[in-house]
Amino acid sequence: MIHARTKSNKMTKIFVIDKKSRTFAADFQDKTNKRSNNSLFFLRQNIGKKIMGYNLLKGKKGIIFGALNDQSIAWKVAERAVEEGAQIVLTNTAVACRMGTISELAEKTNATVIAADATSVDDLEMLFSESQKALGGKIDFVLHSCAMSANMRKKRTYDDLDYSLLGKTLDISAISFHKMLQVAKKMDALNENASVLALTYVASHRTFFGYNDMADAKSLLESIARSFGYIYGREKGVRVNTISQSPTMTTAGSAIKGFDGLFDFSDRMSPLGNASADECADYCIVMFSDLTKKVTMQTLFHDGGFSNMGMSLRGMTQYEKSFIEENTDENGKIIYG
Ligand SMILES: NC(=O)c1ccc[n+]([C@@H]2O[C@H](COP(=O)([O-])OP(=O)(O)OC[C@H]3O[C@@H](n4cnc5c(N)ncnc54)[C@H](O)[C@@H]3O)[C@@H](O)[C@H]2O)c1
After folding, report:
1. 225 CB under 6 A from ligand 1?
2. Is residue 333 part of a domain?
3. Is residue 329 part of a domain?
């Protein structure tokens, strides 16, 4: 274990597992958040933020994967979990720890950061072992909030996938969930009735332009929740669920082609509007709490009603605007541009 100094000059504990991580730890000092936050949506999402706690997770210990910066859904979940009385370990890849601002979150939530790649069984074994030491006992809840598509990054379309990149997408975004469940079960690292959650998207079972191979990853992720949920529930009472979240302005979200349009469309189509990252965190807290002890193997929609809509008035109104005269030529034909 080594220590790194954060912006406010406090020491943060970081466990390192390889050379790269050591470099990350050395670079850790005075890291600033260089994210671009120019969207009005962020302002909207932050309005009405809840700060009250109900002690729903009092005495519980959790591991939270995937907090990259303060837009990450995992970041909001970490903050809410601690507000609700939990003790947490934060984890992300060494590179993400170096690039992101996880030290700020660690300081705020009094959490230990343990760098681990969610696709590496060795890293996961180290993570579950060190987390139990850091937290002083078995784990009560785990959030899987990891996803990445290298095909999307390289702008490969779904009918021109690179298969080795597809393998990476599936490993990072879905199989890692199986790996963490299997490692946790073999190590008996989770308490009876523990709650394990992963974040998913409705493109797992309906087709969305631009979601690419991540749709396949999300289908697999949800299937793993069902298959492992059966075994882990039967043997240990552990709940395994996925939460299907609205489009949310985060680093991963913004990587999706046409994301702004998808975000707006989804908001117009949902009677309650898009669910924000803060609201997603609230839902995760309830799922980690003892209030949901009999909920398992589910894909739980947290999307303002989007998944059950066909067409809304707001959606239809916007759609009709696309037929205004400026978009047609003198013969009334649509100009596609
Ligand atoms: N943003 C959205 O619109 C949206 C909607 C529905 C579901 N989700 C899901 O929510 C989850 C969190 O994403 P987010 O939107 O908060 O974006 P984010 O970019 O903040 O988080 C993604 C995280 O995955 C981590 N990650 C990537 N490879 C990893 C690896 N090998 N090991 C460990 N961690 C790794 C990244 O470092 C990052 O912290 C993802 O599963 C995403 O698909 C997002």
Report:
1. no
2. no
3. no
